[in-house]
Amino acid sequence: MSRARIWTRRGLILVLRVSRLVSIGIRQIRPGLRFLWRSLLKRWRRSLEFRTVLTTLLLAVTSFAIVGAYLSNQIANNLFQERLAQAESESRYNVKQVQDTFDGAQVTDQSSVITLVYDTLTAVEGRGSVIQRRYVFEAVPEQTKPRNRWVESRASDQLTVRVIPPELRKAVQEGGKQQFWASMEFPVGNEDRPGIAVGNKVTFNGTMYELYLIYDLNTAQKTLDEIQNVLLAGGAALVLMIGAVAWYVTRNVVSPVSHAAVVSEKLAAGQLQERMVVKGEDEVARLGASFNHMAASLQEQITQLATLSQMQQRFVSDVSHELRTPLTTVRMAAEVLYDAREDFDPMNKRSAELLYNQVERFQSLLSDLLEISRFDAGAAVLDAEPQDIFQVLGQVIEGAAPVAEEYGSEVLLHAREKSIIVEMDSRRIDRILRNLVLNALEHGEGRPVHISVAANQDAVAIAVRDHGIGMTPTEAARVFDRFWRADPARARTTGGSGLGLSIAAEDTKLHNGWLQAWGRKGVGSNFRLTLPLRQGGTILKSPLQLEPAEFAVSGIEPGAVLERQVLLLSAAADDPTAGPASDELGAPLGDAGVVPAEHQNPGAVDGAGHGTRADDVEAGNHDVPGAEDRPEQGKGPTS
C-alpha cells in the first residue's frame, strides 16, 4: 500500500511537471504565432501583389481539392464495381461446382467426408481470373435433425468465421439459395486488407453449410493509392505553377502602380522633379506618361504660385519697412496737431482728432504687417522660458480694463489651480490672450466674458467665452484667415486690422499648440488656446472642452464646469458711487483686480446665473463625448 501511494504521488508529480512544461511552451509559442498572424494581416492589407497571389493560390487549391476528390471517388467506385461484378460471377460458378461435387459424393465414413470437403474447398481457393480468393466454410448453427455432421468448419490462411460481417452472416442464414455480399477487412499476416465477402448456402449429407468466398482487393487499393498520389503530386505542381504565373503577371501589373505610389509620395513631399519610368506603349505606359504630364503641370503651377507668393511677401515686407519712416513723421505731426487742438476752431479740432486716431490705426496695421512678414520669412523665433500663466493673464486683464469699462462688460476668471508654470514666450502669449479678450469684449454686447483655465499632465488650456453676437461654424473655420471678417460693415472700435487672430494663430503654431474657435449665432463664441506645458511637448487632449457644456450633446457631466473662484473687472468697479471693487462676499480685490485667495467665494454665481460650490466640483477631463476637437470648429494643431 505504501509503495502504491509513493508511485501514485510520483505519477501525479510527473503529470504536473509535464503539464507545466506544456503550458510554458504554449505561452512561449503564442507570441510568435501572434506576431506571424499580425505580419500576415499587415502584408495582406498593404500589398496588392501578396493579396492577389495568395487569393489565386487559395482558389486553385480549393478547386483542385474538389476536382481531385471527385475524380478519386469516381475511380474508386468504378474499380470497386468492376471487382464486385467479377467476384459475384466467379462466386456463382464456384458455388455451383462445390454443390455439384457434394451432391455426387458417395462417402459415408468420417475420414472420407473430411478428405472430400478439404479437396473441394482447396480447389475453390486460389487465384481467380483477376483477384485472389479465400474461403470460410461453416455449418449453419441450430439445424434440426442433422445427419452425420463430421465437418464443422473450414477456412483458408487461418481465417475464422469471425472475420465475416455479422450482417452478411445473418442475411445468408435467413436467405435461401440467394447470394449476398459485403465489404470487409481481413487480416493477412501483419496487415489488414480490404476485400469483398460473397456468401452462399450449400448442403452436404443433409447438413446446411455457409460458404463464404473472400476476394482480396489489395491490388485494386494499391492501384487507387497510386492514382491518388499522382493526382496529389500533379495538383501540387499545378498549384505551384499557377502561383508562379499569378506572381509574374501580378508583378508586371502591380510594379508600375507601386512605382507610381512611390513617385506620388515623393511629389507630395516636395520633390517635384520625380517622374515615372515609361516603357512600351500599353495601358500602363500611357498611365505613366499621363502621370508624368500631370506632375510636370503641377510642378510648373506650384513653382509659379511659390514665386508669386514670395513676390507678395517681399512686397508686403518692403512696403511695410518703407512706410515706417514717413509714418513716424506723419505721426509726430499728428501728435503736435492733436495736442494743440484746443486752439483750433471746431472743424479743425475734429480734423486733428480724426487724423490722430487714423494714424494710430495705421501704425497698428503696419506693426501687424511687419509681424506677418516675419512669420512668412521664417524669421520668427520662440524665446521660451518657464513662467506662470496666471501672471501673463493678469497683465492681459489689467490692460483690458478700459475696454471692459467702455463696453460695460465684466470679466470672470474660472480656475481651480492657483499657479500653472508653462515654458512659453510670454510676449507672444500675452499678445494672443490680449487679442482674444479684446475681441470678446468688443463683440460681447455688454454681457459677461468668462475666462477658464485648466491643466492636465501635458497641456494647459485657456478658454475665452463671450455671450455676444456669435458666429456660424463656417465663420469659426475662417476666423483665423488674414483680413477676413464675418461682417465687413462691423464697427471697428478696437483693433480692426483683420490680422490679430492670424498673428495669434502663428504664435500658437510656434508653441506647437492649438488655437480653436466655436460659435453659434446669437449665443456667443468660445476661443480655446491649448499649450504644451514643456517646450516641444505634444498635446494629446485639451483640458477644456471647446463647445460649452450647455450645448454639448450629452449635457453637463461631472468635471465639465470649473469652479468659479475669481471675479474680475466688474463693470461697476470704477463707479464712484459703488465704493471699492469687491467680490460677492464684499472682500476687496487685490492687484490687477484679482480676488485674494482668503476672500474667494466657493459658491460664486457664474455667468448663467447658476451657483456652484467648490466641494461639488470634481477635477477631470473637460472634453465631453461628442465635443472632441473638431477641425471644422477652428484651427487644429497646425493653425
UniProtKB/TrEMBL annotation:
It catalyses: ATP + protein L-histidine = ADP + protein N-phospho-L-histidine. Residues 574-639 are annotated as: Disordered. InterPro entries: HAMP_dom, HATPase_C_sf, HATPase_dom, His_kinase_dom, HisK_dim/P_dom, HisK_dim/P_sf, HssS/ArlS-like, MtrAB_MtrB. Its main location: membrane. GO terms for cellular component: plasma membrane. SUPFAM superfamilies: ATPase domain of HSP90 chaperone/DNA topoisomerase II/histidine kinase (SSF55874), HAMP domain-like (SSF158472), Homodimeric domain of signal transducing histidine kinase (SSF47384). Residues 251-303 form the HAMP domain. Pfam families: HAMP, HATPase_c, HisKA. GO terms for molecular function: ATP binding; phosphorelay sensor kinase activity. Residues 612-633 have a biased composition (Basic and acidic residues). It is an enzyme of class 2 (transferase). Keywords: ATP-binding, Cell membrane, Kinase, Membrane, Nucleotide-binding, Phosphoprotein, Transferase, Transmembrane, Transmembrane helix, Two-component regulatory system. Its EC number is 2.7.13.3. PANTHER family: SENSOR HISTIDINE KINASE CPXA. NCBIfam families: MtrAB_MtrB (NF040691). This is Sensor histidine kinase MtrB. It comes from Paenarthrobacter ureafaciens.
